[in-house]
Amino acid sequence: MHFSFATIPTFVWVLIAFYVIYWIKKPRLSKNEPPMVPYKIPIIGHTIDYLFNAENFLAECKKKYGDPFNIYVFGQVNTIAGNVTVHEVFRTEAFSMLNATEDIFPLHRVLKSYNLKTLAQVIKTIREGITANLPLLTGRMQKQLLISIDKEIGDCSNPKLVNNEIFPTMVARPVADVLVGQEISKNEDLVKAFAEFTKDFGKILAIPPIFSFINPTFNTQVVTLPVRFGWNPIAKHLDTLKKYLKPELEKRLKDKEVLGDKYEPHLDIVEYFMNNPEYETKVINDEYLDKICEFLFIIVVASIHTTSQHMTSTLYDFAGRPELWDDIYEEQVMIDKECNGELSSQHINKMVKLDSFVRESFRTFDNIASEPHRCMEPFTLKNGMTIPKGRIVQTYLMDIHYNPEAYGPEPRTFFPNHGLENNLSASRTDKNLFMFGSGRHACPGRFFAVNEIKVGLHKIILKYQVKTPSGKTEKKIRVGPVAYPPIAGLIFENRKK
């Protein structure tokens, strides 16, 4: 290798730059913080272990340093809170999940109306417009799921291998019905827009967060830079919604004006939005249309992606456990006969074995750490440790969901009747199940999501025998500390009459 004195300045500058970054990024902890787990690689810290060995790494850290503890990943200190301390994080306003997710899921950079005020309105809308009307929406949900099953799975006289791509569309159809109404949700390209929105937004985040080692906000600016120059994979979905929604909004405004008190409101979120004094209008201009479409897609992001993942995973759990098939199937047959094929909320509530199975599938989904919260002001835990302002706190989900005190000496075992035996429904949040968060940060749409999963599984189990290709439970996919459903596909075959 050729070497000259001219190369010396280059090496010197590289070393200086490395030292400056190291000095700037070196963790500086305040008093009374959780203990910092030592690391060997400057700047990189624990990032490699966190990405490629999260389960063992975090388990060893907790065993040695207790709960909570600090690790250094992607250029910043994260506090890992397990089953002992995480409940304090979820029950106080000192922590913000929205603020924490903006760096890793920068929806605010592509949807202008995405902010704290809008999110608060979205939460209120879900509670009052969806959850409060669940009994009235059940029939429509069932109808749309049956359409989805027929379109996405269809006749399986011969065994058919079906991949996971059908589930976002299956979940999107009932959501579209509830959001924009029964009429325009019949358009398949609109259902497709709802189903693919979150996946296509994920394309913006395809670049690994390497710039987070400099600064998380800088990384967000870099990965969303293509959007500023015109590449926006979600723009087509917004255009699709606007295309169908504008004439519907104009029709409703005209009907209100003509019919007056005789106008019959629609039971959907569009109607709820238009009746909100803050969003009332007499004309559907581009600004109003943008606002309502972005509002609806915020709900889509919060609902379809997660619900479809868990419907997929729960069906894999069922398909891979033949010892449970008969018991759960018999319950569905009994309820189907009782309701003559037309489910009500009361009938869904009677699916106690299926509900318990779904809850256990949630628990064993195998996310290791997720649901980050940012500390918005210094907060002192009951154990005397202080979380400083600005700190990201990660929820150590595996420590909660596999807690031996709650689930016995073998907590990784799948207990299909745990919820049934302990009077715990799948939509209930408690200290031992954080699928939907907890306390002030609990998901407001969990009741609709659980009902949609249960109704979907109910109809599928009645119509098909569902198996995994291996005949056993399939392993989930891991990306860092986050789990995803298996990708083996599922084998569907018509049940013998």
UniProtKB/TrEMBL annotation:
The keyword Cell wall biogenesis/degradation does not apply. The chain crosses the membrane at residues 6-24. Heme binds at residue 443. Pfam families: p450. GO terms for molecular function: heme binding; iron ion binding; monooxygenase activity; oxidoreductase activity, acting on paired donors, with incorporation or reduction of molecular oxygen. Keywords: Heme, Iron, Membrane, Metal-binding, Monooxygenase, Oxidoreductase, Transmembrane, Transmembrane helix. Gene3D superfamilies: Cytochrome P450 (1.10.630.10). Its cofactor is heme. InterPro entries: Cyt_P450, Cyt_P450_CS, Cyt_P450_E_grp-IV, Cyt_P450_sf. CDD domains: CYP503A1-like. Belongs to the cytochrome P450 family. This is Cytochrome P450. It comes from Diversispora epigaea.
